[in-house]
Automatic annotation (TrEMBL):
Residues 1-26 form the signal peptide. It comes from the Bacteria. GO terms for cellular component: cell outer membrane. Residues 33-53, 74-86 have a biased composition (Low complexity). It holds the Pfam family Plug. This is TonB-dependent receptor. The lineage of its organism: Bacteria, Pseudomonadati, Pseudomonadota, Gammaproteobacteria, Nevskiales.
Length: 864
């Protein structure tokens, strides 16, 4: 009997706890879902699906169910000691509370029949995302996520990452002159000033086209993508589900699916002119073809673009030399084999040819000139072939993704290696600025990256007490390098008619070629992952736990053969000279295995359908990478992986019947074994060289900040968006023998990022719809590399290594258009204020990449 009494009182306390917990929800009430008319409100965060909050009796029942406690009134008495206890099966929690005489259940103020829902009004557009491989509203994701709808991207004429990433708080983008993009999310970025395409360090942001990861061991191309369904930007480590390279976040580009029943054609033509620059044009076309009704359909997308230049290469007498040609074709073939089985085949071919780089020398950001005579270019071919199979099982969806992608790049850029060495020694010795002897120098690098990946993933059907994901992943990647360095100030001559060069061989000084190297980086990874979501109180309280295990091997070798001046320097060490051939060469070879776990734990609490708070802890990592400068004993041949641990809390809210959303997040990140450009020592044969920049693990750091996003629909035809991010970070441990100092600020981390957008729609005569938009983005100042600790020369003066600061800048773009549901004409202006902003600084000698000046154009689009 005592046990029965104790059980009774325990149940009373549990029910009282449920009642007390739900009392705070009662005052909030439920929201009414309305349907939004089509408005150009993208990109935006979206109103969540409207699910009325459970009443107190339901919550109490849920809590009892979670704790595996039966309703006491439903408990049957079968013991002889309590024959008089009645049995009332399946009593509700409310009846239990009443009959046990516990605390009365509080009632919502409007508990009596609620008034009828008001007529539907305008709402912010809802966007579904697949961040966790299961469709959910972006406002329900327990983490910082932004979504951009496909039609809004097309309407804005988006051609690259800058067109949308600058609208995401705590995100900055450094576009290098050679066409690559370096993304920093919350200050987590590839901390490296080199962009040769090999030995540069890997990206820290995962980039996905549908389910295919397209980042490699070098910086990735900024693809010209058209006809997307949406773009999802996920901030914070995504290591559990997405693995390597997503330690800062992930970007998912989701293509439009083929229709199996309808023909559609849509296209866009654009022409523009750039201030102080050339003309540009862009043509895009998407065609949907139903090949076999209800069974097979194809969607084919093609683009062709010519971008006018704006930097004058004066020594080459080439105005607007940095023009670019680009084209791409994409096809997605879908076969609906049965109601439960679907097969998709994706092919993408992307080509770009940058004929010179938009880089200028210090002091020439306004006149946009480059006085160097090197011919710089970058030709890139990028291809993806992917087969995705989906089976709908009774309990889950099984997905198989087999992907093969290939990137070929031929690039030539300015790299005055010898002049940099001379400058360093003059500065160290206190001799001032040296003569400009070897300034005309370039490196040509041809890279070929091939990657095969296979992923198997099971995703439960959802809407259960426990929802789960389980998967396995395999990747086999190889990248080859072919490198040639030249000093064109050294003439290729032999006054003896070839006798002297034949005698001295590699040591003959009058030859322009200084180095020819070959290398390969092989990468293999196995991983298994899982995620379990526990709906503790359905539609109220959720806990998600995930874990990924990975094991990877990296093999790297590089053989470099030296000539001319470099042969004299490297050959000062007899070990670098082949006694038989008298050639000078250096070789590095190393293998590294890394393995580890990437956990994630998050919890979210929904006060009601419109307001939620969340907390998450997640770990991410970046694979080890090769260091080409190990040939000079500057750092190891393979740099260890680095890791981040992110702690984040946030809130997402919807107000005013879906016309206002506000999201807020604060975070703290621990970053271990940072990969980045550091200043250390090197060996030119037997000659020690100080103050030499190379890739290495620099130490540890912390990053922290806060970000906010607001979307508001004050009236039916006006949408206002505002985003702000504050970020800071510093080095907490410096790893010897680098000169990165403890307390130094993290590179590529602007303290402040801001973005505001206003979209307005209006009606015009002849049944035309008009719209206008303006976006102002601000990126605070940042440093491109680790700022080295102050060094003194032989005379006691502080050494000036050059200014690698990226100053703050603001960009304004605007557009106005008119049309119908089928066609549209739009006048637009990018960089309306004509700011010559520095977006990237690269080395070894300082070069500035400058944003495109004011560009005004006309865009025509048609769809039928």
């Amino acid at each position: 009997m005592a046990g029965a009494r104790m059980n009774l009182w325990t149940r009373k306390l549990l029910i009282a706890a449920a009642v007390a917990t739900t009392s705070c929800w009662a005052v909030t009430g439920s929201s009414q879902e309305t349907t939004a008319p089509e408005t150009p409100v993208e990109p935006t965060t979206a109103a969540p699906n409207s699910t009325a909050p459970a009443d107190n009796a339901t919550v109490a029942a849920d809590l009892l169910d979670v704790l595996n406690v039966e309703s006491p009134m439903a408990e049957s008495s079968t013991t002889e000691s309590a024959p008089t206890e009645s049995v009332v099966p399946e009593s509700s929690a409310a009846e239990v509370a009443s009959e046990l005489d516990v605390i009365p259940l509080p009632q919502r103020p409007n508990a009596i029949p609620p008034p009828e829902a008001p007529a539907a009004g305008p709402r912010l557009e809802s966007i579904e995302v697949t961040a966790s491989y299961r469709s959910e509203n972006v406002q329900d994701v327990a983490g910082s996520a932004h979504a951009f709808g496909g039609r809004a991207l097309d309407k804005a004429g988006v051609t690259g990452m800058q067109d949308y990433l600058l609208q995401v708080p705590s995100v900055s983008l450094q576009k290098s002159g050679n066409g690559t993009a370096r993304i920093a999310m919350r200050g987590i970025s590839n901390v490296n000033a080199s962009d040769l395409g090999y030995g540069d360090g890997s990206p820290t942001t995962g980039v996905y086209l549908d389910d295919v990861a397209i980042q490699g061991s070098g910086v990735f191309p900024d693809l010209n993508i058209y006809d997307l369904s949406r773009i999802e930007v996920l901030k914070g480590p995504q290591g559990t589900l997405y693995g390597e390279g997503s330690m800062g976040g992930a970007i998912k580009m989701i293509t439009r699916e083929p229709s199996l029943n309808e023909w559609t054609v849509r296209g866009t033509l654009m022409g523009s002119q750039t201030q102080q620059g050339g003309d540009s044009y862009d043509a895009r076309l998407a065609v949907n073809i139903p090949l076999w009704e209800d069974h097979i359909g194809a969607r084919i997308v093609g683009t062709k673009r010519k971008t006018g230049g704006y930097v004058d290469y004066t020594a080459l007498n080439r105005p607007d030399a940095d023009e670019e040609d680009a084209d791409s074709v994409r096809g997605l073939l879908r076969w609906q084999v049965s109601d439960n089985f679907q097969a998709d085949f994706l092919h993408l071919q992307d080509h770009s040819n940058k004929k010179q780089f938009p880089v200028v020398e210090p002091g020439h950001t306004e006149d946009l000139t480059n006085s160097h005579v090197e011919d710089q270019y970058a030709k890139t071919d990028f291809a993806i072939n992917a087969l995705t199979l989906r089976w709908t099982l009774p309990f889950a969806e099984l997905t198989s993704v087999s992907a093969l992608y290939d990137t070929d790049k031929d690039m030539r850029r300015r790299t005055p290696v010898l002049q940099t060495l001379v400058n360093g020694q003059f500065l160290t010795l206190g001799l001032g600025q040296p003569p400009d002897i070897f300034s005309n120098a370039s490196t040509r690098v041809i890279t070929d990256l091939n990657s095969f990946s296979q992923e198997l993933r099971l995703v439960s059907n959802g809407d259960e007490r426990f929802d789960w994901i389980a998967g396995a992943f395999y990747r086999d990647r190889s990248q080859t390098f072919d490198e040639t360095k030249r000093e064109d100030n050294i003439p290729d001559i032999d006054p003896t008619g070839g006798l002297l060069s034949g005698l001295l061989g590699a040591f003959y000084p009058l030859q322009g070629e200084q180095e020819h190297g070959f290398g390969d980086e092989a990468f293999t990874q196995y991983a298994a992952y899982g995620e379990l979501k526990w709906n503790v109180i359905p539609e109220r309280f959720e806990i998600t736990a995930g874990l990924r295990y990975f094991s990877e091997d990296i093999d790297f070798y590089f053989d470099s053969y030296l000539s001319g001046v470099e042969a004299f320097l490297i050959g000062s060490d007899p070990n670098n000279i082949d006694p038989e051939t008298q050639t000078v060469s250096v070789h590095v070879k190393q293998r590294m295995n890394s393995k580890g776990f990437l956990p994630k734990l998050s919890a979210s609490w929904h006060f009601n359908a419109d307001h939620m708070v969340y907390a998450t802890v997640s770990r991410g990592f970046r694979s080890g990478t090769s260091n080409i400068l190990a040939t000079l004993d500057a750092g190891p041949a393979i740099i260890r992986p680095d890791y981040v641990l992110n702690k984040e809390i946030g809130t997402k809210s919807t107000w005013l019947d879906g016309r206002l959303t506000s999201n807020l997040a604060v975070y703290h990140i621990d970053w271990k074994d940072i990969q980045g450009t550091v200043v250390g020592t090197a060996m030119l044969g037997s000659i020690p060289l100080s103050n030499f920049g190379h890739l290495d693990n620099a130490g540890d750091a912390v990053a922290y900040g806060a970000e906010a996003s607001v979307a508001w629909l004050p009236i039916e035809n006006l949408t206002l968006l505002a985003n702000a991010g504050f970020n800071d970070g510093k080095v907490t441990r410096s790893e010897d023998p680098t000169t990165v100092q403890k307390g130094a600020k993290l590179p590529n981390m602007p303290k402040l990022t801001l973005s505001t957008t206003a979209n307005v729609t209006f009606y015009l005569p002849f049944d035309l719809n008009g719209d206008a938009s303006a976006t102002l983005s601000f990126i605070g100042s940042q440093y491109a590399v680790f700022e080295p600790a102050p060094q003194k020369d032989a005379l006691g003066n502080t050494i000036d290594y050059g200014d690698f600061t990226v100053p703050s800048y603001a960009l304004l773009k605007a557009s106005i258009g008119a049309g119908t549901d089928q066609w549209r004409v739009q006048l637009f202006a990018d960089n309306l204020l004509d700011r010559h902003a520095i977006t990237s600084v690269s080395g070894p000698t300082v070069q500035y990449t400058v944003t495109t000046p004011r560009t005004v154009g006309l865009r025509l689009s048609y769809e039928f």
